[in-house]
Write a structure and sequence with these properties.
Helices cover 54% and strands 8% of the residues. The chain is α/β, with parallel strands linked by helices. The chain has a four-stranded parallel beta sheet with strand order 1-2-3-4, with helices on both faces. α2 (35-50) packs across α3 (62-73) and α4 (90-117) runs antiparallel to α7 (141-153). The longest helix is centred in the middle third of the chain and has 28 residues, at 90-117. It is globular and about 65 Å long.
């Protein structure tokens, strides 16, 4: 996301963040809410603490889901949404839910939190934030497994959840102006982005500035010299900024009219 943020920052103030259990952020598990709901609470609090509420929230895949959940749960901090790669449907729900949770359940069952810390995913988090090793090893493996199992349930495919973790009622409740790019791959299908768009009261749809084959070649490593994802995402900066400018002009005109 950083290359996209850099280009977008020429026209907007941009804040990028690593949600908990990703990037350089602290790992944290527990509580009764889903990971998606907790991350929505986090981004709402971050925006408040920075004094920039309401803001435009944006992201792809998990970032898309968390942004929409934040708009549903904390509408007062959201001015608009710029989204791509909406994830849902049977295949994405099953595959993503497995990738995000099951390997770590198996690791904890086999070797406790030491084994979890040694997985490639958590090893990277520890390298970026060494304190994460202490946080992981302090966890009760049984509690960690229960949390992973509960979070995995959010990814079970349900007809009432066209987007993973978001119900139809959640999406209908969102009033923020939204730009949503159509999906065009197996985890982020056009059918899902269409279903989400039909439920959002104020949405504009757009085509992604890359094709299915271009993305699959990168994400699957099928073509070694393919354009890296970090060079694809900045293509979204222009449409994002243009949408924000149009929305701001509309809001200003509406205020002037009243």
């Amino acid at each position: 996301m950083r290359p996209l943020a850099r280009v977008l920052a020429d026209r907007c103030q941009v804040v990028i963040w690593d949600r908990r259990n990703t990037g350089s952020s602290d790992v944290h598990f527990g509580g009764e809410r889903s990971e998606q709901e907790v991350c929505a609470d986090d981004i709402a609090e971050l925006v408040r603490q920075l004094g920039i509420a309401p803001s435009y929230l944006g992201g792809g895949s998990a970032g898309c889901r968390v942004s929409l959940m934040a708009a549903a749960c904390h509408p007062e901090v959201v001015r608009g949404l710029v989204l791509f790669m909406a994830s849902g449907g049977p295949y994405a729900s099953q595959n993503l839910g497995y990738q995000y949770h099951v390997p770590f359940i198996h690791a904890a069952q086999a070797g406790g939190m030491e084994a979890v810390a040694e997985t490639p995913f958590f090893s990277e988090l520890i390298a970026k934030n060494p304190g994460n090793r202490t946080r992981l090893l302090a966890l009760d493996p049984k509690e960690f497994i229960r949390t992973m199992q509960r979070w995995n349930e959010t990814f079970y495919y349900r007809l009432e959840m066209p987007l993973i973790g978001c119900t139809k009622d959640d999406l209908r409740s969102i009033r923020a102006p939204t730009l949503l790019f159509h999906g065009n791959d197996d985890h982020h299908s056009r059918e899902v982005s269409d279903a989400v768009s039909q439920l959002l009261p104020e949405v504009q749809q757009a085509e992604l500035p890359w094709g299915y084959e271009e993305w699959i070649e990168i994400s699957n490593g099928r073509v070694l010299d393919a354009t890296p994802a970090r060079e694809l995402l900045p293509r979204l900066a222009g449409p994002f900024a243009d949408f924000i400018a149009r929305t701001e002009a509309h809001l200003q005109a509406a205020r002037a009219g009243t």
